[in-house]
Amino acid sequence: xxxxxxxxxxxxxxxxxxxxxxxxxxxxxxxxxxxxxxxxxxxxxxxxxxxxxxxxxxxxxxxxxxxxxxxxxxxxxxxxxxxxxxxxxxxxxxxxxxxxxxxxxxxxxxxxxxxxxxxxxxxxxxxxxxxxxxxxxxxxxxxxxxxxxxxxxxxxxxxxxxxxxxxxxxxxxxxxxxxxxxxxxxxxxxxxxxxxxxxxxxxxxxxxxxxxxxxxxxxxxxxxxxxxxxxxxxxxxxxxxxxxxxxxxxxxxxxxxxxxxxxxxxxxxxxxxxxxxxxxxxxxxxxxxxxxxxxxxxxxxxxxxxxxxxxxxxxxxxxxxxxxxxxxxxxxxxxxxxxxxxxxxxxxxxxxxxxxxxxxxxxxxxxxxxxxxxxxxxxxxxxxxxxxxxxxxxxxxxxxxxxxxxxxxxxxxxxxxxxxxxxxxxxxxxxxxxxxxxxxxxxxxxxxxxxxxxxxxxxxxxxxxxxxxxxxxxxxxxxxxxxxxxxxxxxxxxxxxxxxxxxxxxxxxxxxxxxxxxxxxxxxxxxxxxxxxxxxxxxxxxxxxxxxxxxxxxxxxxxxxxxxxxxxxxxxxxxxxxxxxxxxxxxxxxxxxxxxxxxxxxxxxxxxxxxxxxxxxxxxxxxxxxxxxxxxxxxxxxxxxxxxxxxxx
Length: 649
Known about the structure:
Blueprint: H1 14-33, H2 40-67, H3 71-92, H4 95-107, H5 114-130, H6 136-166, E1 168-171, H7 182-188, E2 189-192, E3 195-201, H8 204-213, H9 217-228, H10 234-251, H11 257-262, H12 270-299, H13 308-320, H14 324-327, H15 333-348, E4 350-355, E5 365-371, E6 374-384, E7 394-399, E8 402-403, E9 409-410, E10 412-420, H16 433-450, H17 472-478, H18 484-487, H19 502-510, H20 516-533, H21 541-554, H22 570-573, H23 583-600, H24 607-617, H25 625-633, H26 640-645
Parallel strand pairs: 6-10
Antiparallel strand pairs: 1-3, 2-3, 4-5, 5-6, 7-10, 8-9
């Protein structure tokens, strides 16, 4: 029998089975609460595994709704959210469980191992953050808020996906696609009444292609306008979400949502986050202004937001003699994937073996992961863009490594989803180097989940890791996509098999920090907007005014007034990054510091890389990342490593 379940969803019976599972779990909770002498083994462990199994049942549906979105998946997913949210809210507010956890923590303090102590510590914190200690009226209101929040977040995401899918711009003049890479032109081309035309959409490969290479400024502006004005109905959802989060924070005794969010993160208080971000703005601004001056000279006209990608590409070619399109034949998708696997084998001793199984789409694949010859996990991949698939890239955990109540080991599994240019019978999927970096990034997340050696699922893999540290492993790995010795493992011309020449690698490495300070300011703008937005209740025009005030310091090219970026900011309104988008930069300090340590030791013979495997990847969330990082590097993290990585001196 396979150690991994089939990745299948019975849509017709899903809601019925979900209700049955929830009911069964509720009865199990009642039964466990009746145990007189509660212990970690007879009380905490069964609760842990109960939630693990429910998550394994639910994850395939949420995954399917993201990668193969249909009216049916939308309907079933939307119907399931109130059920799962009500269940998890009641569980997280159960005073009996909360008291039992506190008693077990006190009673078994000396006999529990580190993982078990961490499970209790985080659960007690989560119970308090869920209002387990509140009166029944407050609990009931929190339950209503959680259900409404999950519905609104789903609606936000669906509105964005629908708007992305619905839009297309048809170009019928061949002059308007001159300069576009042949592969992008081929993807856009279609015939109508015998006439060749070109279709551009808001899906990333298509949108980026025209914004980067399209000569017609009016078309660029039209595409940009469509992109930054998507889903205007999300403005109302944002108001509702912010209002609900503010009310929830108040009920739980926090002055705002930001302080509630920080209760479970590495950062200690609001000031430390804002100071960290504003110091980075101050350190980056002088270099960003110089970068903009260079860009402005190339443009010979006042730069607009919809010009930046186009003129950046021209400047990049002029400055480094680098043409991104020349690189794509060296980054054929399968070659990159195989080369990345080889790199991971050399770095950590892990190998991948392809599995033949039926998945949700014919282009989805799966691999078994082996560590030093032992089966460790399964990895699922869905890498190409298509209609009905949510944009962007992410990693989802399916199974978590742990031991069940009987001591039987459960192996981990994870899914990586990207939106790379689609392959066809006529043309392979040729990646931009940015796509290669994205794949390495998501693989970093997946390895963090799959290589865990932790026996308690609630602190195994990515579970239990502080949100502002969770990007550490992904950013650490993505940095290697620029290393010459790593690139030579997979950058081969898909037609000639020629390994990428040294001079091309040299140009790529030199261009790594091209306009990096401008890029840094953009990310800091998102981070400051997100964090400050959650420090008090903003509504309506006040949200745009806040963003505009932050842009006074961060946006050296002023965006047009129609830019409603917030309506598409799914990270914070449909994901888990509310008051936590700063985490990318916070974690980047850790990742840059560890990365330089490995590079300075020669990469493949690095002691730090071996320690990283055993301490960070195998350690999961069983200890705070503060502690794990000090174990790895024998010191505190150095914030200057982040500026060094980005070429900001």
